[in-house]
Amino acid sequence: MKIRYRTQLSFYSSRFFLLSFLLIAGGALQAQISKIDSLEAELSLHIEKDTTRVNLLNELAFSYFSKDLTTSIEYLDEADEIADAIHFEKGKARSIYIRGITEAIQSNFDQALNFYKKALSWYESIDFKPGIAGCYNAIGIAYKNTGELKKSVHYFSEAFKIEEEIGGKNLSVPLINLGAVHQDLGEFDEAISNLKKALAIAEADENEQRVAYSLNNLGTVYEKQGNYPLALEHYKQSMFMNEKLGDSLGIINNLYNIGNVYQTQKNRDKALEYFKQSLEINERINRKGIAIVLNSIGMIHEENGDYTVALSHYADALRISKEIGAGSNIPFIQNNIGSVYLALKEYSTAIQYFTEAKKSGLESDSRQAICSAYLGLARTYVDLKEYSKALSNALQAKEISIESGFLEDQKEASEILFKIYQAAGNYKDALKNLEQFKLLNDSLFNKENIEKIAQLEYEYKYKQALDSASIRELKLTQTVLTTSQDLAQSRQNYLWAIIGILVLSILSGSMIFYQKFNAIKLKNQSIMTEQKLLRSQMTPHFIFNSLSVLQGMILNKEQKNSVSYLSKFSKLLRITLENSRDKMVLLSQEIIAVENYLALQNLENNQYDYSIDIDGSIETSLIEIPPMLIQPFIENSIEHAFEDWKERRRIEVQIKYVNGELVSFITDNGIGINSQEENKRKKKKSLATVITSERLNLISKDFKMNGSVTIEDRSIYGDRGTIVTLLIPHKKLRIS
User: Fold this and answer.
1) Cα–Cα distance between 6 and 23 in angstroms, integer?
2) Cβ within 8 Å of residue 622, ≥6 positions away
3) Chain centroid to CA 387: how far?
4) What digits encode the pLDDT tens for the residues 478-521?
5) pTM of the model
6) Integer angstrom CA distances of residue 382 from 66, 287, 332, 342, 440
């Protein structure tokens, strides 16, 4: 029987672990380079040999390991030396842990395991739970890569317990790794359960890389269950996300898995196409991946009868697996080579490889590989008519296949035993094994038919789901188109209304110019200021951009995001139109408008964090203020404050009473007003400050209450960013 080994997940789970804990997405190469530059600049300024320098050195080693191992190790050496000198246990543990990663990335799993265990001891000595969880995950992956699956389950489970205990953000990591191990053990229900939990957590955390790996591993489980349409769907969704992230190792894995599906379906040309794409990328970055793909390509050539080409690929796969110490792969490749030599009738060479496969299988505790080796030896000795040796190996294979439940192997062993007993004249045992062979053959035939029926059912349901999704997409497109037309009409009516009000104001002012000159002048100034502010808040350009974003979400099939975006946009538009008609609005209504504006601006790509904090002593439903005072300064922060700021962005709005006056503070952690003023000399200057100052002057006279705006650079307080202090004239409503 031909065995296709599937050890690729051992490596790719390891890759996932490394990236998820480093929080480095493959697509963020430019960001990673910027981070390295920033760390090196900081290191050059911090020459004191203290904990800060150790942490900087470790982070630089962490950032370099995937691109320049030599530089990474140089940083680790210095970090080790300083950590030892100042007795910095946490820094020492981190340094040792990263050394383990540098070995794992080279497939030196035994050395990596030693470093991980040493780092674990250091973290345990200081009871640092996140570090302990990370080491458990790393140790589990090392054991998985060396074929010790039960040990890896134990360590992944321990990592999950700790992450759950501390409420860590890496809870999905051990779940993904557990899913991969349970899959290798054939425990598919457990695998799917863990992977679906991991997917849900990753989606909630908006961690696209973990979502990609969860989808990929689910696809592998579905493939083993024979649900090929669902498997391909998950693989392709995963590859789409990996391409978006620029994660080359993830893309390799997706390509290889898609190739496996096509090979299982006997579409060898298609399979070969995907394997070659995977091999091309592997040759640049991943030696273990080369061995895995070469073995699969060799199998396709063997199935096509191209034995010379198949042997060439198998030989390269075996050589690379031995060089990198991938012990769990070796016996399967040796069995494949033995099968080719048996087909070529080069019996002595076939026996040599089957014997080596049996030995390698015993070393890696792979019962499947051992059973296949015994069957290969039995087939070879039958061809040589050495029936006593053939009998011994066939009986061993039958015993293992029965104990392990390998039905295909049981069938083949029964067939070989029938031939042996028939040749020896032992017709009783020959007949017994022939009956067993027929029984198993019928059973497997029925099982294959059931799987084919199930596959057809899966394909039918998948097609139904696609048709249903297409109908829903068409309905949503029609709904959005109608909504867009309504919004466009509303915008046009709104502009005509503004023009009409302006014309009416001018005519009215001309008629009573001499009688009420000063009053009309003040009123015109107020109207112009309000209109300027309204245009700055809700321009046709803003509406067009919002609809463009919405259209992009729909085209990308982001159904939930598009519905949420449309809801928030329509609510903001309605509130803006309502507020524009009123001289005073409730403070609660103004806060709702600000909240919707912030959420709408942030919904597409989550650029910044924001918060709105209202003093508990303020009854927002009993206070009226002029509308649209706060929003222009928030827009100013979004447009100008974060031009060169790459870290986590934040905007805070606070409203409180200070000395009996209503005050709003709008704070950001951007580049600061001083830097903005320098940029504004070169760029278009924001008019929010001027317009709001004009409004406050007019409103203050009308309300006979102070109103002002002050903008300061937070650097004078030792912080980064800008703070706007807005003194708001207001009225308190009486409760009737």
Assistant:
1) 27
2) 732, 733, 735
3) 56
4) 665 666 666 667 667 767 777 877 777 777 766 665 566 555 55
5) 0.47
6) 51, 38, 22, 11, 21
